[in-house]
Amino acid sequence: MSAMYPIPMLPGPVSVPDEILAAMRHNYPSGDLETDFFKLYAITGRGLARLMGTRNDVVIMTGEGMLVLWAALKSCLKPGDKVLAAVTGIFGDGLGDMAAGIGCEVRKFCLDYNKTLGDLAPLEKMLEDFSPDMIIAVHCETPSGTLNPLEDLGRIARQHGSLFCVDAVSSIGGVDIQADAWGIDVLLGGSQKCLSAPPSMSFLSISPPAWERIERTGYQGYDALIPWRSIDGEYTCPYTPYWHGLAALHAGVQRILREGPERVFARHGEVALQCRDGLQELGIELWPAPDSTPAPTVTAALVPTGITWHEWRARLRARGLVVGGSLGPLAGKVFRLGHMGSQAEQRLMTDALAVLREAL
Ligand code: PLP
Fold first, then answer.
1. What confidence category does residue 3 fall into, taking pLDDT thresholds of 50, 70 and 90?
2. 299 near 337, Cβ under 8 Å?
3. Mean pLDDT of the chain
4. Residues 199/191, Cβ–Cβ less than 8 Å
5. pLDDT value, residue 166
6. Is the CB of 170 within 6 Å of ligand 1?
7. Lower Cβ count inside 10 Å, N or C end of the chain?
């Protein structure tokens, strides 16, 4: 538990600031019976829309990030639909597999996991004969510590009439995102990363063409999006809402808006640079390739030679620093510092780098 560690640097869930914990400390009544709940839902949605750069509807659901990944895919796609996944890491690959699990025909445009999207000509070639219903991409590949540019892919998706669905779970609130300008139809986010709230809520923006498809697909289920289309106006929820979780998410959004999103994004960039410079000074090799874009919210680096990940983690934990490992093919090889949300603090990073130096 990060609370047990004086220097929390997990790439989510991040440590939750007191003001966000305080927002949860109320005996909220049943949200679906109270207009105050729906007002908070609407205000929070508007704040999130600002952070996502969209005028589209924002739906907020009870459950952490994976929920909206499944909700978006199951609500938009039917068996036999065609999906192109731009894969630069574990989440892009996993999203492709999830679509295949729904019965879609999936093609993957794959780069190495230390790269980010660049020349899209080969991807466009794939699109010409495939004509996918949806293109999927990941903005910040958290396990790789990389950030994909999305604008060109969004333009290509629009040209081919494909929906563009983006997982931005670990970048919304920490990086400038312009969903509408970049042509993103469905943008997915979670509470436990840059919003600094507990891992209890997730949200997504939905464009009018995406709503049309959702209506056509007609998916019914606990994670279905259709019932959320009208909750603002009709004051009805598909299940008892988690008011405490929404209050925490709202407090997380307000925290960013109060400081000013531009200032917050700049702070993330500065701390990320401090982290990369600090690691390199210590002789620790960064994971992202030199020609790729490192994420402003999480830094991935190679576990130092001559020590296993488990020993390295134990050494850091013994000194009060908790960092993340990685997943899939990067497990055991890569470790990560999450400097997102409440953890995008220069002082915290200075402390983390001091521990890393001592542990080496
Ligand atoms: N997408 C990305 C890019 C993530 O980094 C994560 C979690 O780390 C998720 C989705 C899933 O979020 P959660 O673990 O909150 O379900």
1. low
2. yes
3. 96
4. yes
5. 99
6. yes
7. N
Pinpoint the alpha helices (H) of the chain.
18-24, 35-52, 65-76, 90-101, 121-130, 151-159, 208-217, 231-234, 243-259, 261-281, 309-318, 346-359
Task: Give the separation between CA 229 and CA 207, rounded to whole angstroms.
Answer: 11
C-alpha–C-alpha distance, residues 165 and 77, integer Å? 11
The DSSP element (H or E) to which 298 belongs, if any, is strand 298-302
Residue 93: CB within 6 Å of ligand 1? no
Write down the residue that tokens 């697909």 correspond to: 217
Regarding the beta carbon of 228 and ligand 1, being less than 6 Å apart is answered no
Q: Could you read off the pLDDT of 293-332 as tens digits, one per residue?
A: 999 999 999 999 999 999 999 999 999 999 999 889 999 9
- Ligand 1 binding pocket includes 300 (Cβ within 6 Å): no
Per-residue confidence (pLDDT) for residue 2, from 0 to 100 = 44
Going 80 to 86 to 89 to 92, the CA torsion angle's sign is negative
Which residues, at least 6 apart from 22, have a Cβ–Cβ distance to it below 8 Å? Answer: 251
The three-class DSSP label of residue 341 is: helix
- Who has greater pLDDT, 327 or 59? 59
Cβ atoms 313, 326 nearer than 8 A:
no
Taking the model in full, what pTM does it have? 0.97
Atom of ligand 1 nearest to the CA of 138: 3
Average pLDDT over residues 242-248: 98
For ligand 1, atom 5, name the residue with the nearest CA: 142
**Phi and psi at residue 71, to the nearest 5°:** -60, -45
Is ligand 1 within 6 A of the CB of residue 167?
yes
Sign of the torsion formed by the C-alpha atoms of 98, 100, 105 and 108: positive
Q: Give residue 328 CA to ligand 1 midpoint distance, Å.
A: 14
The mean pLDDT of 193-200, rounded to a whole number, is 98
The stretch 28-53 carries a mean pLDDT of 95
